[in-house]
Amino acid sequence: MIEQIPALLAGDRRIAAKMITLVENGGTGRYDLLKALHPHTGKAYIVGITGSPGAGKSSLTDKVITALRKQGEKVGVVAVDPSSPFTGGALLGDRIRMNDHYQDKDVFIRSMGTRGSLGGLARATKEVLKVLDAFGCTFILVETVGVGQAELEIMTAADTTVVVLTPGAGDSIQAIKAGIMEIADVFAINKADLDGADRVVTEVRAMLDLAEHTRLTRLDWRPPVIKTVTMSNLGIEDLVEGIMAHRKFLEGSGQLSEERKFRLRAELSEIIEHHIKDLIREKVEKSGEWDALLDRVIGREIDPHSAADQILAKGLLRDGN
After folding, report:
1. Are residues 281 and 313 in the same domain?
2. Which pTM value belongs to this model?
3. Which of 35, 131, 138, 250 is the most buried (most CB within 10 A)?
């Protein structure tokens, strides 16, 4: 696929789709492709859109696409859904809410199944973002699978994180429990035509008054709280303005480059961990000791920690073993 990179850079959608499939499925040549794409990345602005199931994230994402296209932006969308237990593919497949954009050559939409990954993103999401970045998308929207109390990985991928809450669902209380207050750069109170929307706005603003801002971007930035209704386009322009204002703040303060450096550092550590795990698994299985050690653990002859120590002590990570 490396020889097709010039076509990707020229905007070939078919090549972009093939490359995304390659990295998502872990195909042969995936790492070589990502290495070759790296010099062509770092230009796209990434916006995460996250929130609980049923908050209207897909519909809201659709409206944000429309607003960004009016500004002349080339938009990529990665929509992460729960996986089918049978095919591993995206289970919901509810991209029909974005169907109006499929004929737009400057909008590229891709659904991804989580395939068992926790954190609200699929394992390959960040690699797919690199393909779309090199493809020339100026904005990439990442819609996460519905978040609970631990699925907050979007903060490691996005420049701006939009947290979507809705009235009548206990979202403001859930936000406190989940730690969502810590990751939100912009709050969207969606379905604001329902009863209780003003109360949610008031509660979120009150929590912001009380919250200790622990992350770097919270030092001088107060997340705006914006009411939206996708059916009537209420608040959509205000939401996009909030995203743009956060971007301007990050760029003006120098925090955008610092946050991206931090994320690249974290990504490097994550890649090393994955490679070490894969290498250990490959070496141990090839040595024939895996089943023997496992039987001893099951038989209570040794404990799992001692078995791990034996594997490492025998130098199974060194080449030639």
Report:
1. yes
2. 0.82
3. 131
